[in-house]
Amino acid sequence: xxxxxxxxxxxxxxxxxxxxxxxxxxxxxxxxxxxxxxxxxxxxxxxxxxxxxxxxxxxxxxxxxxxxxxxxxxxxxxxxxxxxxxxxxxxxxxxxxxxxxxxxxxxxxxxxxxxxxxxxxxxxxxxxxxxxxxxxxxxxxxxxxxxxxxxxxxxxxxxxxxxxxxxxxxxxxxxxxxxxxxxxxxxxxxxxxxxxxxxxxxxxxxxxxxxxxxxxxxxxxxxxxxxxxxxxxxxxxxxxxxxxxxxxxxxxxxxxxxxxxxxxxxxxxxxxxxxxxxxxxxxxxxx
Length: 287
Fold this sequence. Notes:
- By secondary structure, the chain is of the alpha+beta class.
- The chain has 9 helices and 12 strands.
- The radius of gyration is 19 Å and the shape is globular.
C-alpha cells in the first residue's frame, strides 16, 4: 500500500488578462501549497476502484477516477488500483482539493504501476484533467499562466502561517458563473503577479499590496453571505482577508503558528469552519 498526502493551495494572486479564442480565459496566478491535505491510499488491484470517507465523492466523474483511468488508457497498463480517499480539504471551496487529488493519483500510480512516463506526457495528461492539476504536480510556490497549465517554479516563500475559513456556500457551476460575471474592466496585465514574483526572486515575502484576486470584484455580489464571513475573520483579529481561487474560502496570514491556531480556534468557537495551515515546499520534480 502507498499512502500519500494531497495538499490544498491558496492563490496569492489571481488575475485574468482577457478571454482567449478557445473560450477559456488567459490567467496569471501565483499559487502556494499549504499543509491542509487529503490522504489517498493505493493498493494494486485488477481494476480501478475508488472509495472515500465522503460518500458523495464516489462518483464516475471524480477527478481521482478520471486521472487513474486516463493514465491507464494512455499507457496501456493492464491492471488497476484500489484507491481510498480520506477527504479533509473542503469541497468546491477554491482550495484545489480535487485537482490536488488528481495530481497525486497520477504521480503515485506512475510509481505503483512502474510506468516509464516522460514528465512532458504526465503534464499533458494533468492539463487535460483540469487547469489546476499541472500546478499540483509540482506544488510549492509557482506561477501559473495560460489557462493555468503553464507552471513556472518560483523561489520558495519563507514558512508562512495562515488561517482559512470555508463558508458553507454552494453554487452550481460556480467557476463558470464567476468568470461569466467578469467584465473587461476587471482584466489586468498581470501587475500584481509580477510584483509578487519579483519580491520572491529577491528573497522577500508577499506584501499586502501584492496579494490580489480578481474574483473579489464579483464574489461578494454573487455570495452576499460572504461579507459576513469576511467580517467575522476581521473581528476575530485578522488584519486583512482575501478570497482564494473562485472561493468561497477566505484566508489571512498570521505572525506565528500559535497565532494561527488561536485565531482558527476562536472562529471555530463561534461556529465557523476554520483551519490553521502552513506553507509547504515543492516536490522539485514532477515525480
